């Protein structure tokens, strides 16, 4: 029969695992990993800048082109999409307006693996390997993290079916690895943003900050580590006490 301590630990670990999975999925699917705040986006989209949206969504838009648009138009960036705030009516014959709307465009799969250049936008400047691999890792690591947690949950279900706590050790190890992946994702994203801003410094009237999607990923990592610790502790301690009790009965 399972001790109440172990049952409680497993329930708490499952709740932490579920919350971290929800947070991780929400962070992947939203566009607020990094936010740019422009003092006057409506003024930045002037008569000379009516084509910002067309340049932003163009297939030929390079990193410098869409980053400049993000700077000028209160942009937000996620793992899968980038968004800017533009006037609803941007025809050449329309007067300047303050009625703004947010439009987004998704990164294609090829965009996730495209090379980053030493000078953004300059294809002749050579490949920046650090930024290239940081960008690719920040795309791959969240899916690895969620995959590990799902596999761990499957092992946990098998453990319940077998009425054994010992497989929970594997669940704990997988959650620990998922936490490392999430922590690596956060580190890669921060490093990538810092390296980008060294190449393309923020204008004086633009402020940048990490958004709530990034914060969800930051919170998800410690939850995964706590769930891993509880799974491993419950499984190992229960196994040890069961062994001692079996030895006592034999004696």
UniProtKB/TrEMBL annotation:
Any one of the GO CC terms: membrane
Keywords carried by this UniProt record: Membrane, Transmembrane, Transmembrane helix
Transmembrane segments: 139-161, 173-192, 212-235
Primary subcellular site in the record, as a coarse category: membrane
Superkingdom, taxonomy of origin: Eukaryota
Compartments, as annotated in UniProt: Membrane
Family annotation (Gene3D superfamilies): 1.20.140.150
InterPro entries: CLDN1, PMP22/EMP/MP20/Claudin
Membrane topology of the entry: Multi-pass membrane protein
The keyword Signal is assigned to this record: no
Protein known as: Claudin domain containing 1
Organism the protein comes from: Catharus ustulatus
């Amino acid at each position: 029969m399972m001790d109440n301590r172990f049952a409680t630990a497993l329930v708490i670990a499952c709740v932490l695992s579920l919350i971290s999975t929800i947070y991780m999925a929400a962070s992947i699917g939203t566009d607020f990993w990094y936010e740019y705040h422009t003092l006057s986006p409506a003024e930045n989209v002037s008569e000379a800048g009516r084509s910002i949206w067309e340049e932003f969504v163009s297939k030929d838009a390079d990193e410098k082109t869409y980053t400049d648009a993000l700077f000028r138009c209160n942009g937000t960036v996620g793992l899968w999409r980038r968004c800017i705030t533009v006037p609803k009516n941007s025809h050449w014959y329309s007067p300047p307006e303050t009625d703004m709307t947010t439009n987004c465009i998704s990164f294609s799969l090829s965009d996730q693996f495209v090379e980053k250049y030493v000078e953004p936008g300059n294809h002749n400047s050579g490949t920046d390997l650090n930024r290239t691999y940081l960008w690719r890792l920040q795309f791959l690591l969240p899916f690895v993290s969620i995959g590990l947690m799902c596999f761990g949950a499957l092992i946990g279900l098998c453990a319940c079916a077998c009425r054994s706590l010992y497989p929970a050790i594997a669940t704990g190890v997988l959650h620990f690895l998922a936490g490392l992946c999430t922590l690596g994702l956060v580190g890669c994203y921060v490093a990538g943003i810092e390296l980008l801003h060294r190449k393309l410094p923020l204008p004086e009237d633009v402020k940048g900050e990490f958004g709530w999607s990034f914060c969800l990923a930051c919170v998800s990592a410690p939850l995964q580590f706590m769930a891993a610790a509880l799974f491993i502790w419950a499984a190992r301690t229960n196994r040890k006490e069961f062994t001692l009790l079996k030895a006592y009965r034999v004696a």
